[in-house]
Amino acid sequence: MRPAALLLSTLTLFSYYTRAQVHTNATCSSEFDWMNNSKGQSPCLITAWLWSPCFFPESFVPALAPGGLYGGPISTSESNLCECNTVAFATIAACGICQGRGDGVIPWSAYDRFCTDTAAVSKYPFNVPSGTEIPAWAFQDVTENNALDVDAAKAVAESGTCGSGKYYHHHTSSSVFLFGVPSIRFRAADESTSAVFGRNSRLSDH
Question: How buried is residue 158: exposed, middle or buried, by Cβ count under 10 Å (0-12/13-18/19+)?
């Protein structure tokens, strides 16, 4: 292959892996518009962006079925820092809540069960993706109540406190950058089966 063609091929491949498709099909009720960030993005789309450093070429947050809850990593081998941090937990919880799904996600202690490395509380472990902004309410310490405190989050949102830029913490490890379609877990409240895109896995009872 000629050098020019090789260079073009390399650049094309690089471009492919650096432009993740970030999206969601979840719809939030308008009563939760206060959860949106300064870009007008719902917590579901914000979560997709927060997961994007680890998931190429697609970072997707699916809508929940009635009675469903979002879950965390289903095994230590599938854990990653994009999910294993309280900021992403807060936004995915908000994503479920704004769809009318109770707490939106399983309790933090269960969500974090298979995380082999967890970012410091109230820290997002990467540079904030340029396509989003993390609202200030997402930096809440969810370990205190084992869940997102919606009332406290709303109070922060209505106070006009600024978000992401002030709070992020950059993690330099590259070991969590995984290529392939992300494993997005969710479960029905009355079932122990966790649905994973592309395969089915059993979610342990917590």
Answer: exposed
